[in-house]
Every structure is written in C-alpha cells, then in structure tokens.
Amino acid sequence: MPAGLCLMIGGSPVAAHTPVILDFGDSLTAGYGLAPEQTFPARLEATLHRQGIEVRVVNGGVSGDTTAGGLARLDWALADKPDLVILELGANDALRGIDPTTVRDNLDKMIRKIEASGAKMLLVGMLAPPNWGAEYKAAFDRIFPELAKVHDVPLYPFFLEGVAMKPELNQPDGLHPNERGVAVLVGRLAPVVARLVGSPS
Length: 201
Fold this sequence. Notes:
The protein has helices spanning about 1-10, 25-30, 40-50, 65-80, 90-95, 100-115, 135-140, 145-150, 180-195; strands at about 20-25, 55-60, 85-90, 120-125, 155. It is an alpha/beta fold. The protein has one domain: SGNH hydrolase (Rossmann fold). α3 (about 40-50) crosses α9 and α6 runs parallel beside α8.
C-alpha cells in the first residue's frame, strides 16, 4: 500500500494542461487528397508548436459533411472537452444549394452547444458559389457575420481566403487545397488561433 500511495502522490502534482483544439469541419478539415501530416489540423498544430504554443489539434473533419451532419455528431465530439473549437462547416451546404435558413439554424444550434460546453470557439466562414444566383449567395454569405455578431464570437470570414480560385494552390478538382494551399491557410489562421489559445506563461 505505501508503494501505491507513493505512486498516487507521485502522480498528483498538477501537470501543465495542454490545450486541446477541436477542428470541426468537412473535407477541407479532414484533408481530402492529402497525407495525414499535410492536413490543415496537423499543419496548424506543427506551426503552433514552432511558435512555442503547446497544443493538441484534433482533426474533427468528415468529408462531405454538411451543417446538418455536423450538428448530429457534435455532442459526441464535445465529449472530449476541447478547450477551443474551430467550427468550419457550410461549404457542402452551399455547393448543394441548401436553404440558407436551414444552414443558419444548424450553425446557430452548434454554436450554442459549443458555448454550453465551456469551450472557446472560432467561427470560420464560407462563401457560396455564384451558380445558385445572387439572391441565394447574398442570403448565404451573411449567415456567418450575423451569427458571430449575435453570439459575440470571433469570426474568420472566409476559410479559403487567399487560396480559392487559384489553381496552383488547389488540387485538380479546384475545390480542395493542395499542400501549398494548406500552407497558405495555416499561415493566415495560425495567428488568430494563437491569440485565442494564449501563449504559454
């Protein structure tokens, strides 16, 4: 028993907590067409580590996921108690022309669940393609800024900023970033995430 007690005491000093970031999204998060170490979550974690910010970034991306799919699996993902959630969903909704009212409602419910979990969050916006018409695009594109304002959460307006419509930064399908494209995304988003996580003391 003394040995066991010693072991318990030896394990009791409070270790520094490594913040966990849940990157919750679709194929853009999952890393469609990329090796696991080249995905956005993996590259984000590596970049933050190089900056002296110890975090663990969990890849919560599911290719093809819509906001409805994300809402259905969010409770399970939040069960691991992440410190920060990067919410990156909506691209597939826009590609399929899903009603912006439905998309907004799904995102609103997800934001509420994340807030209730006590995690910080970063809402990552998406823009609709023009093929559904100007009215649809206007309705879809205002979802993310409006929700960020309503919930008072930080917003990164467009996940693919600096990469969209640039063939050299995308895979042949023109939709998913290649390794160079992911590097651009990480370069833009890492400072935002770093500020939310906070530098080590």
